[in-house]
Design a protein that fits this description.
This protein has 682 residues and is α+β, with helices and mostly antiparallel strands. α11 links the parallel β20 (445-448) and β21. The longest helix has 20 residues, at 573-592. The radius of gyration is 26 Å and the shape is globular.
């Protein structure tokens, strides 16, 4: 594939690219939502009169007057259908005004009286109400077992038994969750919305408002980031549509940054116990990975943090288990690489502990435990080049210079130095999609598919794929995406976007080459994907980190970080590197900064803004680099590529944590690694 700059770059640089809030419509009104100020209880009354008395206020919606939605509506989307308050920050009313300022000021005047009840918002292992879900995210079984893990673990010469904790983390895309909704005269709903899948949002709205799917159109031409939080419809899209119906005018609604911490999803905190049993040479005989995560009382969501342990290493005796705690909190959801991100932190730190206990180099330990087939399923890997990533990364990073003993590297002034490594993995799947292609007599071609570009470069990748299939220059291809009126496409999530959409685009372009000029042809990949061979399909990688720890203050800096990935054929090197480095940057933030702090007394996140929810700045990532190895995998898709949007974050935090241990001799098993956590042990 040929490196190509983003095809929409000029639109974005000049400001011509329109995001959801920016579409010009006549007579638009504005919405501001009222969040609950208790964590659990009932709404006794909603007094909207003070708000309605303000000039410019058009309406106030609440449980007192909201239109009825169908029973069975997703609990997070069933707005104002009950007086029940299930978490602090839940939307309990909304004000629609002539201006945003009018709506915001009037929202302060809505008087909500509550009957509060005792709440529970703390994830803990001794909660008596823990339960096993039927499945975890993506439909995986909650528990799996192979061999006799409980019987064999005590017989292993070397045993690791450690508990790792990761905090709640919140997706914070640059563009907040934003919707512009309007109802046309023939009762058609048109929505401009910031989301990761126009087709799925359109289908959900049709069901919620009991409309024929053909009467709902969702447009998401440009999206300013998502990281999973926009992968499913959020309350903003339903509320904007409901409000537009109520006032008979277009309504714009942008969720505030503070409200995003309650109603747009987050990564659940985790408590993970990992037990490894190995011989004296570090060969694993038993692996047990037990996970505790939280869900809400509104809707079940179970993060699949134990699933990577089913894939990574040869273990004749293997058990993974997930347990859920139902708390008075917002519903967790997808955040970049759900499951693998927290799960691989625990597993890869445990592997580092095993390496230290056995005296085996951490890279050699992983090589010794390389499986011949996927450990849980027994399926052959379509391709697996983890060892190649580890070897390549070791050579590039200077791993041979690392003394294995903690605190062994020469200091830089008062800075303790260390190196760490961790593996990465993420599934490489596809979802059924449709696409059309039309080729003109002059060779130009227009490809249409309802894919979504959330800043990842999807437009550019699909342009390259279409051009290569057609045998023309990319400049002769136009790709139309981001509209549910186009052929149905899967969401931009799960690292399936390019693989899924690209397959449909290739098939449509192949078909159009056989058709007369001016003919539009369509492709549907449903049957192709159903018929694909059974393989374990995963991308792999390796993270290397060098840290400097101030011995006096406990401050951790990461002057160098390298990611080496095996992700099939790279469609566009320019945007691929951006994706890898972006994921690694989030992994660095996870290791050292990101944490949503729950106030147990009030049931609310204390640091619910970007002033207090810290993420890496440019100065934190100056020495970050990402490379990839050539990988030819014929069992994936017509492009031969694996998804890359998420693997960059997987394992990155573990590499930093392992480097901190090497630098200091201190093993911290809870994230983030802050000076306050590290300094007492120094």
């Amino acid at each position: 594939m040929t490196a190509l700059e983003r095809v929409e770059a000029r639109e974005k640089i000049t400001g011509r690219a329109r995001y959801a809030f920016e579409y010009p419509v006549a007579n638009a009104a504005y919405l501001y939502a009222v969040p609950a100020t208790i964590a659990k209880g009932e709404i006794r009354s909603v007094d909207a009169r003070p708000a309605l008395a303000q000039p410019g206020v058009l309406a106030v919606l609440s449980c007192e007057n909201a239109p009825a939605l169908p029973s069975g509506t997703d609990g997070e989307l069933a707005l104002f259908q009950s007086r029940r308050v299930s978490y602090r920050g839940q939307l309990v009313a909304a004000v629609i005004g002539e201006t945003l300022e009018t709506a915001q000021e009037a929202a302060r005047r809505v008087r909500v009286e509550y009957a509060p009840e005792p709440h529970d918002v703390r994830l803990r292992r001794d909660n008596p109400n823990l339960y096993k879900p039927d499945t975890v995210n993506a439909g995986f079984p909650a528990d799996t077992e192979k061999g006799r893990p409980d019987d064999t673990l005590p017989t292993c010469a070397v045993q690791i038994d450690a508990t790792y904790r990761t905090p709640a983390q919140h997706n914070n895309p640059m563009e907040p969750h934003t919707t512009l909704a309007l109802w046309e005269e023939d009762d058609r709903l048109v929505v401009y919305d910031s989301n990761q899948g126009a087709s799925s949002v359109s289908a959900a709205l049709a069901e919620i408002f009991e409309l024929d799917p053909s009467r709902v159109r969702v447009v998401a031409s440009h999206v300013g980031g998502g990281f999973g939080s926009k992968g499913t419809p959020r309350p903003n899209v339903v509320l904007a549509a409901m409000a537009a119906k109520a006032v008979g005018r277009p309504v714009k609604y942008a969720v505030t940054r503070q409200q995003m911490f309650a109603i747009t999803g987050y990564r659940t905190p985790t408590v993970q116990r990992v037990r490894l049993g190995a011989d004296e040479d570090g060969r694993i005989g038993t692996l047990i990975h037990e996970v505790l995560v939280q869900t809400s009382t509104v809707r079940e969501f179970a993060e699949q943090a134990g699933t990577p342990s089913r894939t990574m290493y040869r273990a004749p005796n293997l058990r993974t288990a997930h347990r859920l705690s139902t708390l008075d909190v917002p519903t967790p959801s997808w955040m970049r690489a759900p499951g693998e991100t927290p799960g691989m932190f625990a597993l890869e730190c445990a592997m580092d502990e095993l390496a230290f206990a056995t005296g085996v180099d951490p890279i050699e330990l992983r090589v010794r435990n390389e499986p011949d087939a996927e450990p849980e399923s027994g399926l052959p890997f379509s391709s697996r080049n983890l060892v190649a990533c580890l070897r390549e990364g070791a050579a590039r990073f200077g791993w041979a210079e690392r003394d294995p003993a903690p605190r062994s590297m020469p200091r830089r002034g008062r800075k303790l130095r260390g190196m760490g490594v961790a593996s990465a993995t993420y599934p490489a799947n596809r979802a059924p999609c449709r696409a059309t292609a039309r080729r003109e007599a002059d060779g130009r071609c227009t490809v249409r598919i309802a894919a979504t570009d959330i800043g990842t470069g999807a437009r550019t990748a699909l342009t390259i794929i279409a051009a290569e299939t057609l045998g023309v220059e990319p400049s002769r291809v136009t790709v139309e995406i981001g509209d549910s009126g186009l052929p149905r496409a899967s969401v931009a999530g799960g690292s399936t976007g390019t693989a899924s959409w690209g397959t449909a685009v290739v098939r449509a372009c192949e078909a159009v080459l056989e058709a007369p000029p001016g003919t539009e042809v369509a492709a549907d990949t449903t049957e192709e994907i159903k018929a694909q061979e059974k393989y374990a399909r995963h991308a792999f990688g390796a993270h290397f980190a060098e840290v400097e720890v101030d011995a006096d203050t406990g401050e951790v800096r990461v002057p160098r970080m390298l990611g080496v990935f095996a992700a099939g054929r790279i469609v566009n090197p320019t945007t691929a590197r951006s994706q890898f480095v972006g994921g690694m940057t989030m992994g660095l933030g996870m290791a050292l900064m990101e944490r949503s702090v729950m106030d147990e007394e009030f049931g609310d996140y204390l640091n619910h803004d970007l002033a207090q929810y810290h993420v890496p700045a440019c100065a934190d990532v100056a020495g970050m680099d990402a490379v990839w190895i050539e990988e030819d995998d014929p069992h994936l898709n017509p492009m031969g590529g694996k998804g890359i949007g998420e693997i960059g974050i997987v394992g990155a935090a573990a590499a930093v944590a392992n480097a901190v241990h090497h630098a200091t001799g201190v093993r911290l098993r809870e994230l983030p690694i802050t000076p306050a956590a590290l300094l007492p042990s120094l």
